[in-house]
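Exercise 7 asks you to align residues with tokens for two separate proteins.
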Amino acid sequence: MQIKQTMPNLTPNPQESAVENKFNIKDELLKILSSPDSAASIKKMDNNGLLSQIFPEIILMKKADNKFYYHPYGLFQHSFETFESLEKILKRLDKYFPKNFKDMRKHLEEKIDVSSNISKIVLLKLAALFHDNAKPETAKKINGKIRFIGHEQRGARKSKEILKPLALNKSEKYFVFKLIFNHMRPSTLTKNIIITKRAANRFFRDIDPLVIEQVLLSIADWHSYKRLKIHSSKELKRQQDSAAKLIEDYFFLKNQKPIIKIIDGHKIMKEFDLKPGPWIGGLLSIVAQKQRLGKINDEKSALALISSKLTQIKKKYKITP
């Protein structure tokens, strides 16, 4: 027996107060997004104009000049197909991440903190829908090619205003902000045949604890072009394999036992006459990486390593005597 699904009523009720309407819209829309098959309902909401009533930014995304985009109906078509692709990938995590899909699924079903009632999956879907929202105002032709320089950062800032109707809390807003802000980062890694450990570790350090969501958003972004055949099947396969390896390395590091600290920042500052600053964290990170690889195991070897890297670090952080 088939159960007929009905879409929740999101039309504002004139007899209710503005506050009641706001929370009805939020609750009903979040219920839709919680479904593993929410794309069909979101599409219906878009077709009847309800989605644009909730998020007026969508009107601007639809008006964006189509000559700037691969999708024939422009930016919002790309955004929706990214959303749609994400749901398909989430259903087949075992296909894309055969070694880690159970841990990934468990992680995604969790709330981001005790103050949140929204799953990470719902917030990830919102990021997918609006990840490129700032492309229209950042589009520029440079050397004959259209570029969207800074659209990630600008779009992340705009997302706070766009998502106001959902009355997200501070942690939830930051979660979506960070995903949009960094949504191009995984592509710079996964488009390569080999991801170096150094590059992967830097990515994990910068993105954690959103590594899983960030990688999934990147793959969905690529898959939104599948139907248009912008990327060859070989390119897509390489990107997916790189993404799977990235997640595998992430869980390997995450599940390792904490390393015993063999040196601290105070010792480094005293030994090398350094002031407090981000360079101390940089040196400690270098020590930790070598320690994990079994290259060093005591304070003496750590100091020798730091001494060999000191000129490089001083140059990077522009430390003058």
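Second protein for Exercise 7:
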Amino acid sequence: MIKKITIIALLVALISAPDVMARKKKDKNKDAKIPVNVEVIQQEVDLPITNYKEQLNGEWNVVEIRGEAVSLPSSVRAYLLFDVEGGMIYGNTGINSLNAHYTMDGNKIDISNVLTTRMSGGYFQGVERDLLRALDDVHSLALTQVGSTEYMEMKSKKREVLVRLRRQNLDFMNGPWLVKYLNGSYVAGRDIKMVNDIDMLTVNITSGCNIINGVITIDPSIENALEYEDLKSSHNQCPNIDTETRLLIALEETMFCRKKDNNEVELLARERDETGNLADKVLVVLERLDR
């Protein structure tokens, strides 16, 4: 009896084996179709200082002081602006305007005559105090790059990083653009033109029907943060008014921008996906228009 049961069990196993293998193969193929998001880790690269004007000139936002992150609301920022030709540093401590003289010798820097205005800043007074004390001890500079983002490290004689700054640079958004894609759809006709002026923080749009003007808002504490606000249209009724309306909605949802290449940029929002994780959503793709 036991021998008969064993033989039957073996037969069942042999018969069901192809099904099991088929299921495994099917599951394997199913798994193979699941996209795997591989996180690209961007390495920090040291940048030798070979051209002061090109590499130092401009605004740098203060992101860390003595290893502690600087947390300020979007309406307040601490930054240093290097005027290489004048040998001056201008900026703001988060409370008061700042200016100073500086000289360079290789990567060594001597900062002197630091002056600030005298406004009281309450909670932010601590950020100002720490920044000014750190500037007194700065001995050298180092430039690094992570992806496309440039950082400046101000170091002490012992090479301790006293102040870490990130370059404020949305110049790639400047100038005239054509709206190429809107919410993933190609814009037929390609007659919607958009001009960003990052210096003046304004935007001008001609849709082929209406003229739209607005304000650009930048949050320096967030990389590439950019928002369009106070968008005002001339309110003419036109055949392509639906496209124009969708563009206005997309611009109002825009949270930041990203450079795809020298000819295209993306306007994006960040929202939670089905799994609850934050994901980037491309709202508009702009194509550079020859001036």
